[in-house]
Design goal:
Two copies of one chain form a homodimer.
Chain A (H helix, E strand, L loop, with lengths): L1 E5 L3 H13 L4 E5 L6 E2 L4 H5 L9 E3 L1 H6 L2 E4 L2 E7 L4 E6 L2 E6 L2 E4 L3 E3 L12 E3 L3 H10 L5 E5 L3 H12 L3 E6 L10 H13 L3 E4 L3 E6 L3 E6 L2 E4 L2 E4 L3 E3 L2 H5 L23 E3 L6 E2 L6 E2 L4 H15 L13 E5 L2 E7 L2 H6 L4 E9 L10 E9 L5 E8 L3 H13 L4 H5 L15 H16 L1
Helix pairs in contact in A: 1-8
């Protein structure tokens, strides 16, 4: 059996290794277009911050591919997928070659989007998607410089933090509000205050109108004002990389990514897709989305890899559990925001509490903000948001199970959570928030 | 409507306040036999350690009772519950009095058990159950003294830690192994090593045969050896306080505590029971147990209080989520241990992993130990145990939802958990452990 994987990111590598786990004899070839083997894309901002060496973030080194007898071609460019002949045409070491396949996993990833504005083609415009992007930013960022970060996503905020930690002056251009796809307005506002209190200049409700400069960007024009800067990093989202898939006749979904079924099969039976180039169903409203999360790339890559060698596994549930630590604050989200739920036609209300993690008499303590989005008709929780100093990731994971298991605010309010004065109060903030929601639901009856 | 609550601990006070929330006009009387109003029993060891002032742990001060128009009689001793006449006879300020009731909540709590051995009646034998017990231990413990702590429960370990932190030499007498009701053997062994590495002398597999001394204990005899000491703290478990209930004709369950139904009603319809004196159904194997946990006293107290004024709420699910922090290590448990599952007739296997919390390339990191107990026939998770430096309580809460929602190792292995290099690895230790279990289940097929 011959397996070809297009793409050597997290999804592609996970697919190749999962296929190998299940099938010792298959020939497995991975076509990757970067110089580096698989690395952690999510770690790039921390390498820019110099909190860890860039070369440390390789997650699947070449020798691991070799040991698993997976052929890794890199840098190699896949140029055509012929689904009739079941052959991938690619360019490697200056030559055109062909790789025949019995099953193919399309894991081409995405592009960092660049806004179409005047001056976006000047030098000094950067994005952060690849290892080399990070290497470039590491080499040019110098303390005292002024950087403009364009965007309000997790990546934008992490890059802003990284550059600030490197001693740069950082301006963040936020068109609507920070992390809008993950947080409701009140928590977005808290993120903005936090960024500002940590020295980031946030231009909210602003867009870059144009970039100015000779050879290199020397200023951006924002809200009519000219803002001098040494460089700009655009972090305004990811676009699925689908050219090859489209040309091969694979169905492209409404999101612009490759359509997949519950087994991660594309519209062409022998081709699977996973990661940032693929569309999946999120399990709250059943909407088709692109996840762009490393966790999903990993898990779905594995499912696609297994299915390519004959397994019949379903894609893992996608509840969109996400977290970041931003200047010491953990910010997380799961499921749908209020606006997303309403857009999906779900009639929701919200509850939000700020509640101490530990009993009132304990010396060290911290407040935990929890926000729940729940259906008015039955109290079912469809989303949650969390903000706190420590443990935010674990609180997101609690809420991930809550959302995925379709628990209601009643269910969460009576959950049997643990308690001990130094580690947890007798009421968990999650349960306190659920109780607040429950009271409101009961009052409406 | 007249409500009488016997007991002013967490269950009793929660019942009184919950009843008041639902019924503004009821007359509510609480009969408490301690001098103090309601306090956090779980905080007593930390007051002994002098990590917080004892007087800070009052959770419902007198003025809160007054503000809620709840009559608090203390110290007052309930002497008889007459379920025919619906009257409680009690002694208060030297006089015999009667309180008629329409509904009664029996929340008399428990006694700290004292072993029946020679010398157990000497001075220098202590227990830790009440505020005054703690005050006594605070006043007698002096650095350089030698203390013997008898027991292997959460309380025993917390008292041992507290006395060690006060500068005493501490011997811990552990009949079987530490936290046996909550941990399987491998984790018990780790707790023992941890205690020893923190300077506690653990006598495992040992029992106190007798206590020696003149007026006061001066030594214990353990395993045939004489161990000189200044005092002994017995923390060998709690016995439900049921004399009054038994005399009133309330049904006593097999556990020795007051039998209750799903609404926390006792065998006498107008009497409810909650807290350490009451029996409840744990929701994994459906066994009747006494919880002895503060969280359950609080939640069940509230349910009993509400039902006493006419609500029809079910007892909250009891999964036995527990946690402690012991010399910087968080140790938690939920559901059944392997032995408990087997005793309940459930055919289980276990999986255990030690997995880093953060990606391998992150500078600070820590290992998290997770152990899962799951049914062989379907992979359903019936219990979980956790040990780590930080976040243990939150990991227990994740597993509490997992167990309560009857998730399988497959479900947990594919859970959508969040990831960001500074807060969480792409695979959560819980999912790694579930995957290990899943592989083993699959291999057996």
């Amino acid at each position: 059996m011959r397996i070809v994987v297009v793409g050597c990111g997290t999804a592609g590598a996970s697919a190749a290794f999962a296929a190998r786990m299940l099938n010792r004899n298959a020939s497995i070839t991975v076509i990757g277009d970067e110089e580096q083997p698989t690395y952690s894309r999510c770690a790039l901002p921390f390498a820019i911050a110099q909190r860890l060496p860039l070369e440390n973030i390789i997650t699947f080194p070449e020798k691991r591919f070799a040991r698993a007898k997976i052929e890794l071609l890199k840098p190699a460019v896949a140029e055509e997928i012929d689904t009739q002949r079941c052959v991938v045409r690619y360019r490697f070491e200056g030559a055109e070659k062909e790789a025949p396949f019995d099953a193919l996993i399309y894991a081409a990833g995405g592009y960092a989007a660049v806004p179409k504005i005047d001056g976006a083609d000047l030098d000094g415009n950067y994005v952060l998607r690849t290892y080399n992007d990070a290497a470039r930013l590491i080499s040019i960022a110098k303390a005292g410089m002024t950087a403009v970060v364009n965007g309000a996503s997790f990546v934008a905020l992490e890059v802003a933090e990284a550059l600030k930690q490197r001693g740069l002056n950082v301006h963040l251009i936020v068109r609507s509000r920070p992390l809008r796809s993950f947080l409701d307005e009140p928590l977005s506002a808290q993120v903005k205050w936090h960024l500002e209190s940590c020295g980031i200049v946030v231009h909210q409700g602003a867009e870059i109108e144009r970039l100015e400069g000779g050879d290199r960007v020397s200023a951006v024009v924002v809200g009519g004002e000219r803002l001098g800067c040494d460089f700009v990093v655009h972090a305004v989202g990811t676009r699925a990389r689908v050219e090859l898939a489209r040309a091969a006749g694979l169905k492209i979904g409404k999101t612009g990514a490759v359509w997949t079924d519950s087994k991660l099969r594309t519209s062409v039976g022998v081709v699977y897709a996973a990661g940032d180039c693929a569309e999946v169903e999120e399990c709250v409203a059943g909407q088709r989305v692109v996840s762009a999360l490393g966790t999903v790339a990993m898990r779905h890559g594995m499912v696609a890899g297994r299915n390519a060698v004959g397994a019949e596994q379903n894609a893992t549930p996608f509840v969109r559990a996400t977290v970041m630590r931003l200047f010491g604050l953990e910010i997380g989200s799961v499921g749908l925001t209020e606006a997303q739920a309403k857009n999906a036609g779900i009639d929701v209300a919200t509850a939000q509490v700020k509640h101490p993690a530990l009993p009132h008499y304990w010396v060290e303590n911290e407040d935990v903000t929890v926000r729940l989005v729940y259906e008015k008709k039955n109290g079912r929780i469809v989303g949650g948001q969390v903000m706190c100093r420590t443990g935010g990731a674990l609180r997101v994971n609690i809420l991930s199970v809550v959302v995925e298991r379709r628990m209601s605010v009643y269910d969460l309010s009576v959950s049997d959570f643990c308690y001990s004065p130094p580690c947890a109060d007798v009421w968990a903030p999650e349960a306190v928030c659920a109780t607040a929601a429950l009271r409101r639901l009961e009052a409406q009856k």
